[in-house]
Design a protein that fits this description.
single chain; 273 residues; alpha/beta
């Protein structure tokens, strides 16, 4: 049975911008996400193992192209109170005082070209030690379909201090990052956000969180569906890059301008992107 009072309290805290959010992993995905929530009025704590990143954020100095230092400085330091909505630490114990945890750690390819999920497993294990009633955990890292329920959920429960039930005592969802560094037009705010929760209640809470700062959110039927969305997006992009690169080689050998070809082909109103 869903703990309705706990769920209602978390939804109210999100609606009133009183929820505290931890962002684990402060790279090209995590830092922009942290600034969006901090700029939206939430108290945000960034967590990263890199002491240099932590020091830079707390000093208001950005190391990410899409986050201007002046914006970061405004969020990290309130000129009157001396402290802003955004701070950073290397200490996972800060999660004990948060309502929401967003996991944005890297998943690089290993030697066998499989995704290295050790970072998200480690993050989940560290979070589990501070998992508490009513918490929402969302994985944003790129990974294979099934990761949220097969990897994250067991790790969260393994070291938890209580016998929690997902969807009742705490909530878990997957929402794939859609960051395109450096292009400027599409940001976290105006890029639609896909969200799949382990239970309907998990989805509802995650939708409420992201809709507070994102223009359009799209619910998926499950985390695995949302994870498959990310896999399709990445595969579509990679296949099309490879295709256009091959076309560019052919055009070069035929002494044809590839950009003219693309511009002319793009006038077709269907069947071409």
């Amino acid at each position: 049975m869903i703990n309705s009072s706990t769920l209602t309290e978390l939804l109210d805290r999100i609606a009133q911008r009183e929820a505290t959010i931890a962002v684990v992993g402060l790279g090209y995905v995590g830092l922009p996400l942290a600034t969006v929530f901090a700029g939206g009025g939430f108290q945000v704590i960034g967590i990263d193992s890199d002491v240099g990143r932590v020091a830079a954020i707390n000093s208001g100095v950005s190391y990410i192209q899409d986050v201007p230092s002046d914006l970061l400085a405004d969020l990290a330091r309130d000129k009157e109170a001396g402290a802003g909505n955004l701070s950073a630490t290397t200490d996972y114990s800060a999660i004990a005082d948060t309502d929401v945890v967003l996991i944005c750690v890297p998943t690089p390819l290993g030697k066998t070209k499989d995704p290295d999920v050790s970072y998200i497993v480690s993050a989940a294990a560290s979070i589990s030690r501070h998992l508490h009633q009513g918490m929402l955990v969302v994985l944003e890292s790129t990974t294979y379909p099934g990761s949220t329920e097969e990897l994250i959920l067991p790790q969260l429960l393994e070291h938890a201090s209580a016998n929690f039930i997902v969807g009742e005592d705490f909530h878990l969802a997957y929402s794939p990052e859609r960051v395109d560094p450096g292009q400027g037009r599409w940001t976290i705010v105006n890029t639609p956000k896909v969200i799949g929760g382990v239970t309907p209640a998990c989805t509802d809470v995650a939708l409420a969180l992201y809709s507070s700062v994102v223009d359009h959110v799209i619910p998926a039927s499950s985390p695995k569906t949302a994870e498959m969305v990310k896999l399709l997006e990445n595969t579509f992009r990679a296949a099309n890059i490879a295709l256009v690169n091959e076309m560019a080689i052919i055009c070069d050998r035929l002494d044809v301008d590839i950009w003219e070809v693309i511009e002319a082909a793009s006038t077709k109103p269907f069947g071409f992107m």
